Amino acid sequence: MLYQALVKIHLKPGHSDPEGEMTARALKELLYPVKSVRVNKNYIILLESKSKSMAEARVEDMCKRLLANPTKDEYAIQVEKAR
To answer: Mean per-residue pLDDT for 14-25?
Structure first.
């Protein structure tokens, strides 16, 4: 069966976000009343799996092995049947 996983990766609290800080400065220069900006990564992954739980486990493994840096990143996973 085909599943679609959405993986959202963001920095853990306390880690600097230079890209977000630069974007916030640029928006302020354009006179937007921005307090802060945080940059996140989203991955949409289509994968074959026998069950939703197996798909979730595979995506979790992908995050641990490649997609997220456990020192500085946190992530959330959503898996559903692909349409």
So the answer is: 96
